[in-house]
Amino acid sequence: MKALYEGLFIFPETLSEEDLDQAIDAVKTELEKLEGSLESSTRLGKRSFARPMKKKKAGIYAIIMFRMDGLKIPAFKHRLKLATNVFRAQFVKKEESEIAQEA
Fold first, then answer.
1. Residue 65's Cα: distance from chain center in Å?
2. Considering only CA atoms, which of 5, 23, 4 is closest in space to residue 15?
3. Helices 17-33 and 73-83, interaxial angle, to 10°?
4. Domains of the chain with CATH codes
5. 4, 26, 58, 80: which could form a disulfide with 13 (CB 3.0–4.6 Å)?
6. pLDDT over threshold 70, residue 90
7. Whole-number Å distance between alpha carbons of 82 and 85
8. 33 φ, ψ to 5°?
9. DSSP letter at 100?
10. Which three-class secondary structure state does DSSP give residue 41?
11. What is the pLDDT at residue 98?
12. CB 51 within 8 A of CB 98
């Protein structure tokens, strides 16, 4: 059964708007390859890091809600590292009761 996940994605700060669109589309493509589906995406904009990571001082943040079989999350993380412009990604499984409360 597919569960709902909230993903925090950090993209390189050097991406233009057009490149960011392509990077988010690449994430969606990887989701679809693993039989997942994109629910929504929200751009949070450029934010500075608390401390430099890999010699970078900032990144472009986005929250992407998606549905996917939990067993495919490790494969999704691996594909993101290889095939996309994602600097970092973190996922949290959302419970259906949490979603109702947020609405």
1. 8
2. 23
3. 140
4. 2-8+16-98 (3.30.70.60)
5. 58
6. yes
7. 9
8. -65, -30
9. H
10. strand
11. 59
12. no
Q: Which single residue is written with the structure tokens 């109702």? A: 100
Q: How does pLDDT run across 36-54, given as a tens digit for each residue?
A: 999 999 999 999 988 888 7
SS3 category, 23: helix
Paired tokens of 92? 């949290």
Exposure string over 14-50, b if 16+ CB within 10 A, otherwise e: ebeeeebeebbebbbebbeeeebebeeeebeeeeeee
- Structure token digits, residue 16: 């233009």
For the beta carbon of residue 88, count every other beta carbon within 10 angstroms: 16
Give the type of residue at 66: F
Closest CA relative to residue 30, chosen from 80, 64, 70: 80
